[in-house]
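FW: tagging you since you asked about this chain on Friday. Here's the raw sequence from the shared folder, copied in full. Didn't touch anything.
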Amino acid sequence: MGNGGLEGLRVVEVARGMAGEMAGMVLTDNGADVVKVEPPGGRSRRGDAGFRVWNRGKRSVEADLATPEGLRVLGALLDGADGMVCDLRAGTVDRLGIGYDAVQAGRPGLVYVAVTGFGERGPWRDLPGHEYVVAARSGRMTALTAVDGRPVAFTPTPVASFGAAMLAVQGLLAGLHYRERGGGGQRVHTSLLHALVTLDMTSGHGHRIHTVDTSGKVYGVMPLAFMTARCKDGVYLQMCSRLPHQFRNWIRVLGLDALYDDPAYAQMPDVFPSQAALDDVVVAVRERMAQRTRDEWLDVFSVEGVGANPFLSPEEFLDCEQAVMTGKVAEVTDLEVGPIRQIGPIATLSDTPASVGRGAPGLGDDRGGWATPARPPAAPAARTPAAAPTYPLDDLVIVEAAFAYATPQAATLLAEMGARVIKVEPPTGDPSRRNWRTTYTKESPGKESVVVDLKTPEGQEILHELVAGADVFLHNFRPGVPERLRADYDTLRAVNDRLVYVYGSCYGSVGPWSHLPGFHSSPNAIAGPGVLEAGSGNPPQNRTFGDPTGALALAAAILVAVTARRRTGRGQYVEGTMLGSLAWAVAHYSATGDGFERPPGLTHHQRGLGPWCRLYGTAGGELLVCCLSGRERAALTAALEAAGVAAPASGWPADGPVLEAVFAEAFLGRTAEDWEGRLLPAGVPAVRADGIDHFDFMLRSEHMRANGLAIEDDVEGVGRIWRSSGGVEFASSPVRLASPVPLGNDTERVLAELGRDPAAIADLAARGVTRVVGQGLS
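HL: got it, structure written out here
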C-alpha cells in the first residue's frame, strides 16, 4: 500500500494460480489494498518462489468458503470492496457459491474479474486451466521442435499466465472506469487462452510463412537476422539486426558486404532468391561470428549500430546494469523467509510511482476488514439508458506515434475496450504495413490513420493540436528523437498538463543499452526465457515473447495512470519496457534468497520439469501430465493402478528419475487419447500434446470460434483472412471489433476536426506534410 496510482482501491483476491495472484501483484505494487482470501491451512505451495513474489504487499485472510462462516468473512470484505479477482475453476466457483451472480446482490458497484483457462464456452471450457495444459491442448508445444528431433517440446515460460494477469488488471481498471462514468459494476472475464490470442502474432496467413511466392524466393528474417550465433568462446549471441540498415551494418562488420554486389541479395534479410542462397549466407555468417568472443562482438556492435544481445539467466538479469538502472530490481523484506531480491514494478510512473515494500503475507495475518474504514458500496450514477457508456473506455482519446508491434499493440488492446486511437503515421506509413503486413492486422484494428510528417514544423503543430484534446500520448521513439520532433514529455505536458505521456521501449530511457536497437528477441535473451526454454545443457533458444508481453504490460500501466489521473487530476510520464515485462513472466525464476523453493528447470531433452509435469511418449501420441498438487499426484497414482499399472514394490517414489522411468514405461501401454479419457475424469490434469497444429487451432477451431477469439476480416493487400481478436470480455458491452484502415484513411476528417478547411488540407498534402487516401507515394 502507499500513495501509488491505485491508492484507495480495494480488491478481494480469491486466487490460487499465477494469473490471479500476479494481477493482484500489479495492483498492490501500485497502491491498491489487496486482501487475499486463503483456504484453511493456506494456499498450497506457499513455500514456492512464485507465492513469495506474486503475493508481495498483500494481506491475508484465512476463510473456509465451503462454510457459512467463511462466506460471511468474504461477504464482509466485498461490502467495502471495489473489485474481486477470482481464478478458481468454474465448477469450484459454482460449488462454493462465490460467482458474480451470487455475490453482486447489494453490491451494484462491484467489478468482478473471473480468470479461466480455456474460456467459458466451447468444447474445452472445463479442461484444467493450468499454464502447461493450455499450452499443450492448444497445440503450442507442437509449434516447437525438441533438441532430440521430436516434433513437440515442453515450453516452461508461463507467458499465458502472465498475459492473463495483465488482461485481468486491464479488465478490472476498465470496468472501474466504466463504473465511475455511471455504468455500474459488472462481471469481467479473461482467460489464459485469451492471453495466447494476444501473445501469438498470427493472423491467418501467418507472417512467419517461409516461402514468399511460387518462384521459390524465401524469407531470411528468422534464420538470419534473428540468428542465435555461437561465438569463438562457445558463448551465444542473439542477433536482432532486423531492419535493412542494421542488417547491412552487421554484414559490413563481418566483411561480407560484397554480397550486396549481387542484385539477388539486394533485399536481405527479408527476401532471398532461393533456400540454397539463404543457407549459403547463414553458413558464411556463422563462420565469421565464430572468429571473435561474445564480449568482443558486443563491443564492436555497440559502436557500429548492430543489434545483438547476450543470453542471461533470470537470476543474471537482476544483476545486469540495465535492469538496475531502469528500476527492474527490488529488495523485499519477507517476514517469513527474510530478504528476497526480485523483480521491480511493471512500469515507471513519475507522479504516482509504484512501490515494492513488504513481502508476501503470513497466513491470516489480517483477521478481516480493510486498512481504511469501510465505505458504502459504489452505486451507478443516475443516467438514461441512451446515455450509458457503450464501451468501458469510449471516452478516452489516445494519440499514438509508434510502429512495429509492442507499443502499438498496447493501444490496440485499449481500442478493443472502446478507446479512440488516432494513429499518427509518417507519409510512408508504419513500416509494419509494408514489412509485416499480417502482423499489422493484429496491432492496428480500431485505429484511425492520420498521416503527419513530424519532421516538419507544420506536422509538429498538428501533433500538438491532437495532444491538446487527448488523454494519452503513446510513442516508442528511441531517446533523443522525441526532442527533435518536439514530442518530448516536457513539450507536450506544456500543451496538456492532464496528459498521460507513455514511452514504450525495449530497454528503457536510461542505462547503457537505452540507445541500442531492440526487437522481440532482445528481451527473450536478456530477461532469461532464452535460457529457460533451452533445457539443461543446450544452446539458448529464440522465442517470440518480447513484443506481446511488452504490449500487455504497457496497456495495464496506461490504465493505472488513467485511474490515478481520475483521483489526482494530473497527468504523468509512464515508461514500460519489453525487457521488464518479459522478466515479470519469469519473476519466480529470478527471485534469490533463502527459505523458499525454487522452480525446477527444463530437462535436457525438453520434456518437462520433472516426473509430475512433463511430456510422455505413449503407444500413440504425446501426453502432457501436469500434477502440481498433492491431491493431483495421488489421483494420478490411483488412476494408474486402476488402469493395471502396479506400483513399485517399495511404493510410488516421491520424485526423481526412478519415478520418471516408472511413469515413462507405464504410459507406453496405451495411446494418449486413451490416457486422457481415463485421467481427466479421475481429476488428473493430462491431455494429448501433439496431433494439433497450433496456428490452425488458434484461427479456425470450433473452440476459438465459440469464444469469439477467431474472426474473419478483410485486410488491404492481404485479402479475406481469419485472425485472432479480443482479450477481455465485459458483461456490459461487446469487444469493439474493427478492421485495419488504409494509410491516411482519416487524415481529412481529423484535420477538419482541428479546424483545417479543405483547401488547407489539400495544401498540406501537396507539400507532403500529410497524406490522404488515394494520394500516391512520391
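FW: Residues 159-183 form the longest helix (25 residues).
HL: agreed, and Residues 390-537+545-584+731-766 form a domain with the Rossmann fold fold (CATH 3.40.50.10540).
FW: great, closing this out.
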